[in-house]
Specification:
Blueprint (H helix, E strand, L loop, with lengths): L1 H20 L3 E7 L5 E8 L6 E3 L9 E8 L4 E8 L4 E8 L5 E4 L17
């Protein structure tokens, strides 16, 4: 009986740990721009509350990384800084549906229009 109780408690503990992590939002970044990405800042969509996210240099032409954007909500604005000094803001990125952002210095489909932003 003690072994069964231990097994049940272990399973419940594991289930609680998995449930607690369900709110974490990840976003995969794929850099299709020519220049490397040097910085990324994330804010809840429609706000100016950007916070810097630590990333390694993300090479242009297909470099990829995955980052944690938050643990609540789905929509975020991302401010991406390139090695050449250019910055692009990708507004209203959905981290829950798809969880992937293709970075480009020129938005082709209009889905992520370019906007001016303050330096990172």
């Amino acid at each position: 009986m003690p072994m069964i109780r231990f097994a049940v408690l272990s399973l419940l503990s594991a289930a609680a740990t998995v449930h607690a992590g369900e709110g974490i939002r990840y976003l995969e970044l794929l850099n299709r721009a020519h220049d490397s990405v040097t910085g990324v800042a994330v804010a809840p969509a429609g706000t100016d509350r950007f916070r810097q996210v630590d990333i390694d240099l993300l090479p242009g032409g297909g470099g990829a990384t995955r980052l944690v954007v938050a643990n609540t909500g789905c929509r975020y604005d991302l401010r991406v800084a390139f090695r050449n000094g250019q910055q692009v803001v990708y507004p209203n990125v959905d981290a829950c549906k798809g969880g992937k952002l293709v970075i480009s210095s020129q938005a082709k489909d209009g889905r992520y229009p370019l906007t001016a932003s303050t330096p990172l």
